[in-house]
Target: ABC transporter B family member 28
Amino acid sequence: MASSTTTHSLPTPLIHLRNHSSRRTCCSSPSRSSASRRLKLSSPKPKFPSLKFGKFESRYSRVGVVVVTGAYVAAPASDPNVSDNEVKLKESDSQRVLCLLLGFCLKGRFFEILIGRRPEPLWMLLTNVGILYAMEPIFTVFFIVNMGTIWEKVMAALRAVVFRRILIQQVEFFDRYKVGELTGLLTSDLGSIKDIVSENVSRDRGFRALSEASFSTLSRSFRYNLHTFCPVPPTCSSFGAAYGFRFWLSRSTVPVFQAHGKAQAAISDCASETFSAIRTVRSFAGEKRQMSVFGSQVLGFQASGIKLGIFKSANESLTRIAVYVSLLTLYCLGGSKVKAGELAVGTMASFIGYTFTLTFAVQGLVNTFGDLRRALSAVERINSVLSGTEIDDSLAYGLERELSSRELHDENLKLFYNNGSSESYLINSHYMSALKSARNGCSQAWSGDIVLEDVHFSYPLRPDVEILSGLNLSIKCGIVTALVGPSGAGKSTIVQLLARFYEPTRGRITVAGEDVRTFDKSDWARVISIVNQEPVLFSVSVGENIAYGLPDDNVSKEDVIEAAKAANAHEFIISLPQGYDTLVGERGSLLSGGQRQMVPANVQSMSCGDKFPYRIAIARALLKNAPILILDEATSALDTVSERLVQEALNHLMKGRTTLVIAHRLSTVQNAHQIALCSNGNIAELDRNFLSFGLDPYLFHLLLFALAAEVQL
Ligand SMILES: Nc1ncnc2c1ncn2[C@@H]1O[C@H](COP(=O)(O)OP(=O)(O)OP(=O)(O)O)[C@@H](O)[C@H]1O
Model:
């Protein structure tokens, strides 16, 4: 190979000109070579400050600058016409590292030294390469650890924002979306966004792939392009075509990704629905039906997965076609040039190296594009769920106020607070701050009646069906009102309005004469306790489940025990293997078969295991001590002991409170101070003496139906 100059200055147009000419020196005109030397000597001084690297400095610098300036690879490291002063370059650390990388890994010179066509010692070359190989993993660890940490923090903040945004939606939002869909947002959708970084910090993907691909293309273009190496334009155009087509393809795959995400959410929805209602499924022998529903979701997911696979394969094969066309062009055109002596073998070899680098980089980019598409459709799904809905202003305002005003001792809550007032711009703070605290509502509810005045209501998802049509009901302070009526009459709807899960579409609800809408809804829960037939227990200990009655307070163990005693649950709880610390399973299933055997037989008989959650709920309500109590009476038959225990607990709970009982038993109705019959979205108040003669439960229900059908309200 011909030898000419060592180049060592910054990449100015002047230097490019010189480099091109120096390259030609090896193959063609000597006059251009001398011209290049003249130009080289007049090159500007390097701008970078000098750093002493001892012996290695000049060698690395020289090698590196050759590449940076796009010099011809056949240029030797030393040139007798160049003075030492010129050779000693002054570059920064990063420039040196870049020089090392570029000089040894990407140049034809590397191959030529390896095959002995150049005089430089091989050990020197291998030492340099070894140093580079050692540095790479160190920087990789640094890069991945930092990127990973930053991105994990971003994702935690994002998860907190989405969770909080879901929590403060109005109740109808939860009617509209299934549990699986919402959990899917927090798991698989946010997971796809997380993958953008976590999957793309690896060597061959993401930013690295992008920089490698760009650099390979650019350096190829600068070094070989236009003058001598005709394979470059066809290679670049095939890659260009592949990129263009991929861009079009990526746009058309977004709906496919979305459909795939939806299908995945449907699977998790079906699974969570089935498992959460497992007792109902069992009791109806519904396993086969659930399997069929699940099967159809899985098949849907499979179909969308296959469709997605087809798009992915199109992407893959397109990339490969581009690579192989590029390589074939290179072999044909480059090979003929080597044969004709117009091109050095090392150059050809390095060009093949570039092409492979580009191949891997483009492959990495394809994967990154795939991640981006998935992430984009996930963002779109999260947006479509959360943007079209209305947040519950009052709840959002209350939470915002709590989180920002309070001394936060709970580290976990700081995650939500630090992300700050992301919702504050959505809230009408001026209006909200004028609302009265629910503590005022509490004190008024202890002394005043609750009145529903001409209440009309339709559920937001079925606005054309009026459930309550001008309903009037007065629930007297401190006494028990029994609400009776046939199924679907609207009893639970009244409860939901009193709890302020929904607001009446017309009319109003008052407490001691004050419209409930003048009270802050965010802590309205203080005013009302609700005990459902099927109370929900959380997957924490029995004690914590009772303490949930006052979730924001530090409830002492003594208070929990006192509440449990009043709810007649204490005996049963202490008979459990870990007492109050016994963990409650999902949906309140308390004991495994083995644990049941450890509970003494006499306790088991009085445990009314199935009604245990009901008594825990009573204990919770006792702890909460709200002035208004709403009770959906347990319908399932209890044995005499259980019935007595539960009734005693309820009597305890109802004492002195304004109580509304959705009554399913004659005894409850007979003991109530006031009876309201709900039918056709309206109320008729009944005289309790009307039922004071002995009726058996069957006759009682018959009578209710007859009344509901006959009474013109
Ligand atoms: N979230 C909802 N969205 C739309 N319609 C609803 C919703 N909840 C209940 N409904 C409808 O409102 C009507 C009244 O239901 P509601 O649950 O209040 O009756 P109910 O008297 O409590 O019946 P049951 O004694 O069987 O519980 C029913 O037709 C029911 O289908």
Summary: The CA atoms of residues 547 and 553 lie 9 Å apart.
